[in-house]
């Protein structure tokens, strides 16, 4: 498929031809030229002949689709890699199955200081309960074990790991025989990750980045922080990514900034902002998202980590220092604290400056119409994960269990956000849900609550260009001359223009529409397969192409 006269690693001039190029510059483009890491031209097959003699490489697409590479706007890279290389319980169909997998994993890893696992979800098991400490002690053979729930906001552990954190019983979130949350969870997580060697950590990071590249993801936003990972983890990942080849990594460090010195420290770590998982609350699955009214299945309203005053102080300093701020907020009370705090900061430093900073909110699930309007007013980016709805939405899902059907139906209102002009950036929160960009686009377009659905085109844009815009870049994530040559090549079926609502035509293949087509993502259809991923003109992954 490829003819080349340049040496590997050189900046080649590449002509891709004979396929479909998804570009607003030419909705009927079948060819593209890449030069010095940027898109130089897009156009028709006939016009491509004029470039053929002067390029270093010609790629015959053989009908394949070329799109901008995806940006996953919320990833925990090391944890994702550890889930890929460690014990993954996301596929366990029952508590008994999970314990059997744990026994087998423990037997197969006799030298690990601490057994690490992820992905259990009791809401999906027929037993409808988490494993007890005695069951874990037995299955792990008495060894230290740290096993996160699928949302990563709680964990079950063995007695041997608790023995490494003697003060844990006095911390908030400690439960004698239940999942640990809050400060207790953070303490045992720190103890577990302290046992991960630098070599294991790098191997995990490489595994995660390779998986991302194989799925057409050209950029990931690493959401690091002192309550999630470590400074060494973030700086090591950024160094690894810079050494390439591989996906770009944009780092965020989730620590409250109170002065200029704190802002400088965030920059010295290599982070773009003091944002990402700066926790205002927890998660719905672990009953730690902060709500205005109690959970339907628990007699409390969750956990608040920081209030509106703390949000305001953080946003004001970040804005003054030219640093992006951001927060993790899921429950309606947490989102109210964010909105009130950001508005108070705008009153202090000026609304125009706050809007220009493009502060962001991660997850933003339990939004009211007032929250949506405030996001638009304040210029906040909603960094969202459509797979959450695919996993836990619907009238029979975990959200309905936690909140009741009526409240659950309000979650993740993507259509309302777009109508209000709120920028969307799509991600996975891996390892919470898998790296799966086309799956995320499908989940947004076929939301379990029909009124929240958006078009495939809008979701695709949010998962490509939206991720770049969330970092302050408006010139990327789209295949037009001058843009970075970050793209992916796909084997897929017929391209269509797909709408999210049965009240309008669900698709059109009429070329007069002038709208570039995208794969048919109707549930049940096969998702596109990545053949090649390219970042800044350099191939970072290939599947025989």
UniProtKB/TrEMBL annotation:
Gene3D superfamilies: 3.10.310.70, Metal-dependent hydrolases, Urease, subunit C, domain 1. Residues 57-540 form the Amidohydrolase domain. The keyword Ion transport does not apply. The keyword Hydrolase applies. GO terms for molecular function: hydrolase activity, acting on carbon-nitrogen (but not peptide) bonds. Pfam families: Amidohydro_3. Keywords: Hydrolase. This is Amidohydrolase 3.
């Amino acid at each position: 498929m490829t003819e080349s006269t340049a040496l590997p690693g050189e900046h080649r001039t590449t002509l891709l031809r004979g396929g479909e190029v998804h570009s607003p510059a030419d909705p009927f483009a079948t060819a593209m030229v890449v030069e010095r890491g940027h898109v130089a031209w897009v156009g028709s097959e006939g016009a491509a002949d004029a470039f053929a003699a002067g390029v270093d490489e010609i790629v015959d697409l053989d009908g394949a689709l070329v799109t901008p590479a995806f940006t996953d706007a919320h990833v925990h890279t090391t944890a994702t890699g550890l889930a890929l290389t460690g014990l993954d319980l996301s596929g366990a169909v029952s508590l008994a199955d999970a314990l059997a997998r744990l026994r087998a994993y423990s037997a197969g890893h006799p030298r690990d200081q601490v057994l690490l696992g992820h992905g259990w979800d009791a809401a999906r098991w027929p037993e409808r309960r988490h494993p007890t400490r005695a069951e874990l002690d037995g299955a792990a053979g008495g060894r230290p074990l740290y096993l996160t729930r699928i949302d990563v906001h709680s964990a079950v552990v063995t007695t041997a790991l608790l023995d490494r954190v003697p003060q844990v019983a006095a911390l908030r979130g400690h439960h004698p025989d239940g999942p640990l949350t809050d400060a207790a969870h953070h303490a045992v997580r720190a103890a577990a990750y302290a046992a991960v060697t630098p070599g294991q950590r790098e191997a995990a990071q490489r595994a995660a980045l390779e998986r991302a590249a194989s799925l057409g993801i050209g950029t990931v936003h690493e959401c690091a922080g002192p309550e999630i990972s470590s400074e060494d983890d973030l700086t090591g990942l950024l160094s690894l990514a810079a050494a390439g080849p591989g996906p770009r990594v944009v780092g965020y460090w989730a620590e409250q900034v109170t002065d200029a010195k704190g802002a400088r420290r965030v920059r010295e770590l290599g982070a773009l902002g003091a944002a990402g998982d700066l926790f205002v609350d927890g998660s719905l699955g672990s009953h730690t998202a902060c709500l205005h009214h109690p959970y339907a299945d628990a007699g409390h309203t969750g956990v608040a980590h920081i209030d509106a005053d703390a949000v305001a102080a953080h946003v004001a300093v970040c804005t003054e220092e030219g640093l992006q701020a951001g927060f993790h907020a899921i429950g309606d009370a947490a989102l109210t604290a964010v909105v009130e705090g950001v508005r108070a900061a705008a009153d202090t430093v000026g609304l125009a400056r706050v809007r220009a900073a493009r502060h962001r909110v991660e997850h933003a699930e339990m939004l009211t119409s007032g929250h949506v309007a405030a996001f638009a007013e304040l210029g906040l980016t909603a960094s969202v994960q459509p797979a959450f709805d695919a996993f836990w939405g619907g009238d029979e899902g975990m959200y309905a269990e936690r909140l009741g059907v009526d409240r659950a139906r309000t979650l993740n209102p993507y259509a309302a956000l777009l109508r209000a002009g709120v920028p969307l950036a799509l991600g996975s929160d891996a390892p919470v849900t898998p790296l799966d960009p086309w799956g995320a686009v499908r989940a947004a377009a076929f939301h379990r609550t029909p009124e929240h659905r958006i078009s495939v085109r809008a979701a695709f844009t949010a998962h490509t260009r939206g991720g770049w815009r969330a970092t302050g870049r408006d010139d990327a994530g789209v295949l037009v001359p001058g843009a970075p040559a970050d793209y992916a090549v796909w084997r897929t079926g017929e391209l269509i223009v797909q709408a999210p609502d049965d009240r309008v035509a669900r698709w059109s293949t009429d070329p007069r529409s002038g709208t570039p087509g995208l794969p048919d993502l109707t549930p049940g259809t096969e998702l596109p397969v990545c053949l090649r991923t390219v970042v800044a003109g350099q191939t970072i992954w290939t599947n025989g192409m």
